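As described in the Methods, two query proteins were run sequentially through the folding procedure within a single session, without resetting any intermediate state between them. The first query and its resulting structure tokens are shown here.
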Amino acid sequence: MTDASADIAQDGFANVAAPSGVASVADYVALLKPRVMSLVVYTGAVGLMVAPGAIHPVIAAIAVLCIAVGAGASGAINMWYDRDIDAVMERTRQRPIPAGRMDPEDALAFGVVLAGFSVLVMGLAVNWVAALLLALTIGFYVFVYTMWLKRRTPQNIVIGGAAGAFPPMIGWAAVTGDVSLESIVLFGIIFMWTPPHFWALALWRRLDYARAGVPMLPVVAGDRETRRQILIYSVLMALLTLVPWGLGTGGVIYLIVAGVLGAVFVAGAWRVWRTGPEDQGPAKLLFGYSILYLFALFGALLLDTPRMG
């Protein structure tokens, strides 16, 4: 950590309110980052359902539950570690720890227990390949993204985004017991989706990240470079979403839907590129659309995969 980051961290910890009492159930749910978890669980479940082979419904449900619990564990540990910067960011200062509703050590213990539980159950009830991928996902998010990259490089989202891209690969491995090219492509789609998704948010939350000392791309490289990178990653992502059709994972309907959704995404990224920093409307629209986009894209894959039926 740099000296400047250390100063910010020290100030942030000073702003973290002392725990005022016993945390509520809602506070523990908030630690799990349920909105983020919903995308993780969804893409993991789709990966499981489009994978070749059969899996007992109960085992499938356990696998999806383990993915959800593992994602929640990652979120809880992330909130424990980031409590200093959460205390100075407008959109995070009401989280349980900086708001003083929960002791940081309780959050850490909660996250560690859930992480161990999810990996152990995945290994014992499903298979150890899926469990290993789940452990890798949790470890990557906690140690590589949260503790190493987030405060040190504007490429934090690019590299750290791998953690959010693993779930469909985990779901696939739950059925097949291995990692295949098809599952790697699903990983790649989310990996390429993550930078434009988060950078669109960072464009209109830039001052928040700057205040917290987080070197997001708009803070370090400026708005124009961020907009250019958003467009580049959006084009690459849109092209990559066509690959599942070529591999036989998705059918013609999926190809059409992916093409249309990708064209709209690229058009939104183009608007962001062409708009100056004084108008953050296109960035807000792209951020909102990016969430719907991922749900719709994986939904189309689920509904039109030749391996179903």
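Immediately afterward, the second query was submitted; its sequence and tokens are:
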Amino acid sequence: MSRTALITGVAGQDGTYLARHLVSLGYTVVGTTMPGAPHPLRPYLPEIVLEELDLRDTADLRRLVEQHAPDEIYNLAAMTQVNECWANPALAHEVNAHAVDRMLEAVHELAPETRVLQPSTSQIYGTAAPSPQDETTPHDPRNPYAESKSLAHRSAVERRERDGLPVSVAILYNHESPLRGPEFVTRKITRAAAEIAAGKRDRITLGNLDTSRDWGAATDYVVAMHAILQHDEPMDFTVATGTLHSLRELVDVAFGAAGLADPWSYVQHDADLLRQADTPGLLGDPTRIRDTLGWEATTSFEAMVEEMVRVDVARIESGIEETSAFLSTSDA
């Protein structure tokens, strides 16, 4: 019998890849999008049921749960841009934290057997975390995005421990793909490399090149999300590669993939682009998910960046921004 999954925020990078993965496994997928919001990644989605949902509208969420009776819920809807959260911290807390608590209450009342995945973020650990971090590392969030995700993380754990709700938390470290939005620095770099190689621009402006991240591939991370909900015991898992790479390395790999031998002749530094309360190189320890579920990242940092450049080159050459032909069949 086909299982049904509800993915909130299906219009984003993770939602799109997760929907493709679940459909390939035979799931019926219901995906939600923000009412009236653009959906540029629609060409990549297989045939799924699309519903509009503002996560703050608990009554509408209850309707979807009752109507579709999902076996699994992946709550990917969130404000994820740190700069946007700095600009409107109250909205970030409402969408990323308070709405999640109300969602969990609705699931507890209507479908207490439904398994729920609540994504968290490495940013909950703040600027002075021991390295590497794992599921026991104390939270010390230092920006509104991290604060809101920490609250949602704690709410999920409380519901699991107090009410027995089968909710698991995936502590996601940075993960990228060709579907990453152009407002993120990783995609800004891969797009710039492709455009410079095509003669459409002559430079890119960046902030702190020495910042490091534990970067993985979104295609690997959605596999982890699904694996987490197949585990009979709901718990927290760190989803990470366990390896740090700097933004400087990312520039080198991206420009090399675009055929540009001297990337630094195209890079201009701008101190104004430095992020407020930026976290240092947060490094995840994926021991628990590897030992418990057998999951580990399979895509190298270099392969991830090279694939992003390949698709950005294809976008420029074709004049088409989004088409399913850009993704390899292994991404489904």
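The chain has a mean pLDDT of 92. We note this only descriptively and draw no conclusion about the first query from it.
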